[in-house]
Amino acid sequence: MKTIISGFSKLSRAEKVAMLIKQQKLSEDLDHTFTNYLHSSEQHLFSDISENVISNYYLPFSIAPNFLINDELHMLPMVIEESSVVAAASKAARFWANNGGFKTKVIDTLKNGQIYFKWDGNIQDLQAFKDELFQLILQVTSDITENMRKRGGGIVDFDLKPVDNMPQTYQFLIKFRTADSMGANFINTCLEAIAPHAMAFIDERFKDEYNVPETIMCILSNYTPDCLVKCTVSCPIDQLQPYAGRYTPAEFAERFKNAVDIAINDPYRAVTHNKGIFNGIDAVVIATGNDFRAIEAGAQAYAARDGRYRSLTRLELDADNFTYTLEIPLALGTVGGLTNTHPLAKSAIEILNHPTAEQLMQIVASAGMANNFSAVASLVTTGIQKGHMKLHLTNILNALNATEAEKQQAIKHFNDQVVSFTEVKRFLKDTK
Ligand code: MEV
To answer: Which of 129, 161, 208, 254 lies 20 to 30 Å from 65, alpha-carbon distance?
Structure first.
C-alpha cells in the first residue's frame, strides 16, 4: 500500500533512497546506481542546486569546433543526449567557416517585467501621470538597481496597458536591461519593490473617485521579442556542392528554399523545423547553465508572433547567392545563476572565453543555425535517417550490451546497410 509521505525533504539522502525503494517496491540495486553517480568529492555543489537530490543525471558534454562567428573562431560546448546533433553542428560549422562564417548581430537586449493590477478607475486618467510614475519606479528601485546601472543596465522605460478581454485589469509593462546576467531575480525583485508604491501612488491621486487598486502579481515575462539576435550565412550557390548530393547546387538550393518556405507556411512542419534549430540552441544554453525552458518559451512564442506558428528562419535565393537567416529572441546570461555554481557551466563559459551576454546570444544563434542548416540539407537530399541511424548505432549496440569486438564488427557491417534496432539485434545474434 502506498502512503502519503510527510517530511521527505527532511530525510537524509540515504533515507530518501530507502523510502523511495520501499514505497515504489523497487530493486535494491537502484541504491547502488544512485550512489554510483554521486560525485566523489563535490556532491554538495550539485545537491545544493535543487531539492530532494538523490543522485546526478549525466548528459554528455561535447565540443563542436570551427564555428567562425563574425570572423572569430569558437569551439562550442554542447550538452545534448541526441546522437548526430554535435556531428551535424560541427559539419555545418566547418562548411560555413570556409564560406564566410556566421554573421551575427544583436538587434536589442530589452527584457520585460509585468505588474498586473485590478482597478475600477480609468486608465486614460492614469496615463496623464505616466512621467511621475516612471520617476517613482526609478526612485523606489534606486538601491536595487545601483549595481546594475553601474554595469550599464537598469530600468529603461515602462508602459501602462489594459489586459485584453479583462475589464478593470491593467499592467505596468516595465522594460529592463540586465547587462551580462539573465536578470530574472533582478527583474522580479524590482517589480515586487515597485508594486506597493505604484498602487499607493494611484490610490493617492484617485481615492475620491475610485477604489484602492490591488496588485494581482509581479513577474518577469519570458516573452522577449526585443532581446533579439540575427544570424546569417551566405555563399554563392555553386559553393553548396558538398551538401548537394545527387543534385546540382542550384537544384539543392531550390529544394532547400522549398523546405524553408513549407516551414514558413505549414505549422506542423514549422514545429519540427524549429525543433532542429533548438537542437543546437538548447545544447549550448544547457552547457552554459542558462534556463532552456525560458529560451524555448520565449522563442516559440516569437515564432507565432503574427498569430500563426512559423519557421524562425528565412531563405533568400537569387540567381547566384544563397542567404539564410535566423532571427530569434535569446534572453541569456553569462554571470550569476548556474554559471557561478555548476563546475561544468563555468567551464563552458571559460571555453567560450568568458563572453558577454550579447556575445553568447550570437554564439547560441549560430549553433541553432548550424543544426537547422544541416537538418534541412539532409532532408532535401539523402533523407535524415542515413546519418542519424549511423550515429544511433552505437547507442543501440550499448543498449544490447555488445562487446567491443561486436561493436567493431557491427560498425563495419552497417557501413552500407540500413540501421535499425531489429537489424542490429539480428546481426549480433548471427555473429555469436
Ligand atoms: C531531429 O532532432 C531534428 C529534425 O527533425 C529537424 C528537421 O526536421 O528540420 C531533423
So the answer is: 254
Task: Residue 323: give the domain boundaries.
Answer: 61-107+227-382
The dihedrals phi and psi of 233, each to the nearest 5 degrees, come to -120, 145
Q: How many domains does the chain have?
A: 4
The yes-or-no answer on residue 82 being catalytic is yes
> Are 258 and 144 within one domain?
no
> Ligand 1 pocket, 365 CB below 6 A?
no
Query: Is 378 close to ligand 1, i.e. is its CB under 6 Å away?
Result: no
Average confidence (pLDDT) over 173-201: 97
> What's the pLDDT score for residue 386?
73
Nearest CA, atom 1, ligand 1: 276
Per-residue DSSP letters for 67-110? EEETTEEEEEEEE-SSTTHHHHHHHHHHHHHTTT-BEEEEEEE-
Ligand 1 lined by 313 (C-beta under 6 Å): no
This prediction's pTM: 0.92
Provide the pairing of β-strand 169-177 with 313-317: unpaired
pLDDT band at 286 (very low <50, low <70, confident <90, very high): very high
Substitution site in 266, 273, 311, 386 for ligand 1 pocket (most atoms within 8 Å of beta carbon): 273
Q: Which residue has the cell 532532408?
A: 379
Question: Residue 68 sits in a domain of what CATH number?
Answer: 3.90.770.10
| CA distances in angstroms from 285 to 27, 100, 107, 188, 251, listed in the order given | 35, 24, 19, 22, 35
Q: Which atom of ligand 1 is nearest to the CA of 279?
A: 2
Residues 241 and 371 in one domain: yes
Q: Assign residue 124 the CATH number of its domain.
A: 3.30.70.420
53 lies in the same domain as 13: yes
Residue nearest to atom 7 of ligand 1 (CA): 273
Q: Please indicate whether residue 351, judged by its CB atom, sits closer than 6 Å to ligand 1.
A: no
Q: What is the pLDDT of residues 27-43, one digit of tens each?
A: 999 999 999 999 999 99
**Ligand 1 atom closest to Cα of 372?**
9
- What does the pLDDT look like over 151-163, one tens digit per residue? 999 999 999 999 9
374 has a pLDDT exceeding 80: yes
The reply to whether 98 and 232 lie within a common domain is yes
Residue 315, pLDDT score: 98
From 105, 257, 275, 390, active-site residue? 275
Active site residue 291: yes
What three-state secondary structure class fits 222?
A: coil
